[in-house]
Amino acid sequence: MKNKILKRLKNSDDFVSGEKISQEFNMTRSGIWKYINMLKEEGYIIESIPRKGYRIISSPDILTLQEIENNLSTEFIGRNIYYYDTMDSTNKEAKRIASLEDEGTIVISEEQADGKGRLGRNWVSPKGKGIWMSIILKPDVEPVKVGAITLLGAASVFKGLKKMNIVSEIKWPNDILISEKKVCGILTEMSAELNMINHLIMGIGINVNLDEVDIPDELKEKATSIKIEQKKEIDRKLLLANILNEFEKLYIAFKDDGNVSKAIEICRENSVSIGREVRVIRGREERIGKALDINDRGELIVEFDDGKTESIFAGEVSV
Ligand code: BTN
């Protein structure tokens, strides 16, 4: 009901009288008052004038469905959002609920106390400054085809930023860089049987409005935020909606037969890795080579110093 009242107020430029709301939603004036107060607590500034009614003055910077839906054009990605103020890790929560939820469901938290990065690292996730989200996916493809799905995430973050005139580059397979520093990482986790995927969790972490002080000293050389690079605050709600819109387009092509050609094209054309020296870390082994291309399966083609060329399916690659 709270969200219905919010929608009603958002859809009107003028005051909406208490009487109108109470008739439309069949509720008492004190009931309306209770919901208005709840909205105020969430950060909505609502003007209320006797005999005129209620009017929204401004909305808070929060990543709820109600705040992004005006810009969201998807059919199923992000249409069901579990929104939290704080939690351990959105990937962990998405895993807990994945079997019960439809694909496209998203877990978003304003802050993560135990954000997970790849290779067991932590992911710094300060409150209200980033986009920390996990998308639940249930594609009908064989588990072997799933390696390239991370590229869908990277391509959609790249395109979402581009839509806001923000130039970035993709570091295969799952980082987005601005001025050679990381602003986004993706952690894809899978629950599968031998020939069937139960679910995939695509965790996307974007350093949107972090300030210098939010980035730990030991990461400063390699990590930055969009705000630091653009020297201005970024509209998180619009960026989130843009990314989800782009993601759904790419995911629809993938979900039935594993087609990732469009995402690969985007990653290839905007790759920071191709033509550069890369370090390929596999388990304890570390080798230096030159990235030549991304093949049609989404693998990175690397020529090593001994002259051998290999396609790298996954593993840590540093520029
Ligand atoms: C990386 O190491 O580059 C991947 C980072 C992934 C971070 C995101 S933030 C949202 C989601 N929840 C997590 O705990 N991790 C991912």
From TrEMBL:
<dbReference type="Pfam" id="PF03099">
    <property type="entry name" value="BPL_LplA_LipB"/>
</dbReference>
<dbReference type="GO" id="GO:0005524">
    <property type="term" value="F:ATP binding"/>
</dbReference>
<dbReference type="InterPro" id="IPR045864">
    <property type="entry name" value="aa-tRNA-synth_II/BPL/LPL"/>
</dbReference>
<dbReference type="InterPro" id="IPR030855">
    <property type="entry name" value="Bifunct_BirA"/>
</dbReference>
<dbReference type="InterPro" id="IPR008988">
    <property type="entry name" value="Transcriptional_repressor_C"/>
</dbReference>
<keyword id="KW-0805">Transcription regulation</keyword>
<keyword id="KW-0092">Biotin</keyword>
<feature type="DNA-binding region" description="H-T-H motif">
    <location>
        <begin position="18"/>
        <end position="37"/>
    </location>
</feature>
<keyword id="KW-0238">DNA-binding</keyword>
<dbReference type="GO" id="GO:0009249">
    <property type="term" value="P:protein lipoylation"/>
</dbReference>
<dbReference type="GO" id="GO:0003677">
    <property type="term" value="F:DNA binding"/>
</dbReference>
<dbReference type="GO" id="GO:0004077">
    <property type="term" value="F:biotin--[biotin carboxyl-carrier protein] ligase activity"/>
</dbReference>
<dbReference type="InterPro" id="IPR036388">
    <property type="entry name" value="WH-like_DNA-bd_sf"/>
</dbReference>
<comment type="function">
    <text>Acts both as a biotin--[acetyl-CoA-carboxylase] ligase and a repressor.</text>
</comment>
<feature type="binding site">
    <location>
        <position position="112"/>
    </location>
    <ligand>
        <name>biotin</name>
    </ligand>
</feature>
<dbReference type="GO" id="GO:0005737">
    <property type="term" value="C:cytoplasm"/>
</dbReference>
<dbReference type="InterPro" id="IPR013196">
    <property type="entry name" value="HTH_11"/>
</dbReference>
<keyword id="KW-0804">Transcription</keyword>
<keyword id="KW-0436">Ligase</keyword>
<dbReference type="GO" id="GO:0006355">
    <property type="term" value="P:regulation of DNA-templated transcription"/>
</dbReference>
<feature type="domain" description="BPL/LPL catalytic">
    <location>
        <begin position="57"/>
        <end position="255"/>
    </location>
</feature>
<dbReference type="Pfam" id="PF02237">
    <property type="entry name" value="BPL_C"/>
</dbReference>
<protein>
    <recommendedName>
        <fullName>Bifunctional ligase/repressor BirA</fullName>
        <ecNumber>6.3.4.15</ecNumber>
    </recommendedName>
</protein>
<dbReference type="GO" id="GO:0016740">
    <property type="term" value="F:transferase activity"/>
</dbReference>
<dbReference type="InterPro" id="IPR003142">
    <property type="entry name" value="BPL_C"/>
</dbReference>
<feature type="binding site">
    <location>
        <begin position="89"/>
        <end position="91"/>
    </location>
    <ligand>
        <name>biotin</name>
    </ligand>
</feature>
<dbReference type="InterPro" id="IPR004408">
    <property type="entry name" value="Biotin_CoA_COase_ligase"/>
</dbReference>
<dbReference type="Pfam" id="PF08279">
    <property type="entry name" value="HTH_11"/>
</dbReference>
<dbReference type="InterPro" id="IPR036390">
    <property type="entry name" value="WH_DNA-bd_sf"/>
</dbReference>
<keyword id="KW-0067">ATP-binding</keyword>
<comment type="similarity">
    <text>Belongs to the biotin--protein ligase family.</text>
</comment>
<keyword id="KW-0547">Nucleotide-binding</keyword>
<keyword id="KW-0678">Repressor</keyword>
<feature type="binding site">
    <location>
        <position position="182"/>
    </location>
    <ligand>
        <name>biotin</name>
    </ligand>
</feature>
<dbReference type="InterPro" id="IPR004143">
    <property type="entry name" value="BPL_LPL_catalytic"/>
</dbReference>
